[in-house]
Amino acid sequence: MPNVGYNRRTKQYVMIYWSSRYGFKNSLVALAVSSTPFGPFVNVPPLEMQGGKVISDTTNLFVDDDNTAYVRYNTRDEPLKHVVEKLSQDWMITTGQFSVIFEKENFPWYDGGGMFKRKGIYYTMLSFDCCFCQWGSDARVFSSTEILGNWTYIGQLNYCADGSGPPEHVTDMTINPCSIDDPFGTNFTVPAQQFNVATLPISSEETLHMYYGERFRSSKDGLKAHDFQAWIPIRFIDTCIQPMLFLDNFTLNIDLELKT
Question: Which InterPro entries match (predicted)?
């Protein structure tokens, strides 16, 4: 699950990624750099995060408009937390400044998700920890006007396919929240577990934010490496974010002359 950002100050591409050498063991996040977006990326000393003692399995790199970078990650030390933490100007170390987006002591825990910014408001999306489930996961949205400020839960984007909301608590990650007694019953509307949000400047006046997630157990031959993904445009009406629909297809009109 690599995330790559371009640091305009240092003129290098920086990748953070989850590594089994660190994940579930300590507070380190793997870091690599390259002079081009195509690599090769070379490992450098990992980031040592300050907002938790043990990092879990998902990390995201978010770069703000002023080139300041942040890492969003979840922790395994209780209570389990989602944290956003500010990096130094060269993105090579943490500043130690962080904010807790959400914390929870009982299952389901939350992982995955992504962070984006729209019209001065920061958003984070989190999902049930379903661990390779075919029914997918939800998409809980939190927002803040300051990235290191207080975060507020604003709503659910991925309801169960029958229109119901998933429960606040289930007993285990093997339980389908949309069909408690039948793991092969009702799925989520978008039957995927979210990994991130892609931000696409499609014109000089419009930016599209796109959910993407893994559709576990979706491959026809049963191989995990052949599973499909779900890419879904996130819709807004004014400032109100709208529940997602599982679209068979959609068209993006991108200004090819747009310079970023």
Answer: Glyco_hydro_43, Glyco_hydro_beta-prop_sf
